[in-house]
Specification:
The structure is a homodimer. Chain A has about 200 residues and is an all-alpha fold. In chain A, about 75% of the residues lie in helices and about 0% in strands. Chain A binds a DNA duplex (18 and 18 nucleotides) through helix 4.
Chain lengths: ~200, ~200
DNA sequence: GTCTATATTGAGATAGAC
DNA sequence: GTCTATCTCAATATAGAC
């Protein structure tokens, strides 16, 4: 057993408590306004413990984000491999993303706050590329649908952004309103409403 | 001429420069992270000047928000008085709101950051009621359209939220991406795509 | 690993001269 | 109205004992 492994086993609870407390405080007060003092008090430890585990406030923040973000990215890869008609693939994609967000509301809320709001002095993380990849995935599906006749031939950019709008707003509702006024089934109904406008009139 | 009027004339430039600098810094660093020192330096004055005009940082923030918010509210009232078919009224409503946002991007960005993100220690302003009123206005229009046969009879909650989603995401694009990937005409096309799904099939 | 105690910096805010 | 100089407090971070 290496020294690293020993350390990893020993520090168990404290690390997690610090991460959880920081996440809660970053969300309720913002990265800048949440002080180290508050974080350690909420975790029932003292300041040096935080510096021992994470080096500094930034290190704690990065540690907090990296796990869930990596998980999200790998989920993104898996979901694009889904087979079926374009409409069903779009629905499946959006529902999966929404479910991911619902499972990690706290982290998602923080990501959105940093992405959409001022960085607040938090170290930079490239959320932009991640969001763009999501946009691009939906764009490709819509384009494919327009080409193979499943969607209207003019369902290009505008159609893709309309889908993204619904997904985006549904996600935001998860962490900006309690209880959220949009859930999975409702988002699906909204998307189907949109699709009936997007779908090719073959009747 | 009262004392108030004299004062109002005299302090001209400084007040405005402080407000503008604060708005810029609140947006780029967040309310908590933007320091009074930075604000006054950017305005070319010293700290006591800020305290002279606004009492404190919170006073400055409130002064900054109140003007545009009142203007926005009165615009909301005016736009709901627009006459015409439901579809055109919805389009007019959304285009007007988007235009308002585009004319006050900086304030809108700050409002969204505070509304969606952590309050950062900024004094509370009730944006919720304002947003709800917007949601309610759209809800009423859709409901009316469903009743008078201009929209599908089942175009209720879901249809309204689909409209809101498009408007919401279009607004966000204005202050979260340069250049914005959505403008007025594109939002209109997205809404019309949605409408063709919502509209009653009378053909 | 975790503590007490403290160094150091920068924050918001004010006193008092002009 | 605007300044210089300063107060007070809380922030991040660390030294050093256990």
């Amino acid at each position: 057993m290496t020294q690293e492994e020993k350390t990893a086993r020993q520090d168990g609870g404290v690390r997690e408590r610090l991460l959880a407390a920081a996440l809660g405080l970053f969300n309720s007060k913002g990265y800048a306004a949440a002080s180290v003092r508050e974080i350690v008090e909420a975790s029932g430890v003292t300041k040096p413990v935080l510096y021992y585990y994470f080096g500094n406030k930034e290190g704690l923040y990065l540690e907090l984000m990296n796990g869930p973000l990596a998980e999200f990215e790998s989920s993104l890869k898996r979901v694009t491999a889904f087979q079926g008609g374009v409409t069903e693939r779009i629905l499946h994609f959006c529902l999966t993303i929404l479910e991911l967000v619902r499972e990690n509301v706290e982290v998602a809320r923080l990501v959105y706050a940093i992405y959409y709001g001022p960085p607040q002095g938090a170290p930079h993380i490239d959320f932009n590329t991640l969001f763009d990849r999501m946009v691009e995935s939906i764009g490709e599906m819509v384009r494919e649908g327009a080409e193979n006749g499943e969607l209207r031939p003019d369902a290009g950019q505008d159609g893709a952004w309309a889908v993204i709008s619904i997904l985006n707003t549904a996600m935001e509702e998860q962490f900006c309103h309690t209880p959220p006024r949009i859930d999975g089934p409702q988002m699906e109904r909204m998307l189907r409403l949109l699709m009936e406008g997007l779908a090719a009139k073959t009747a």
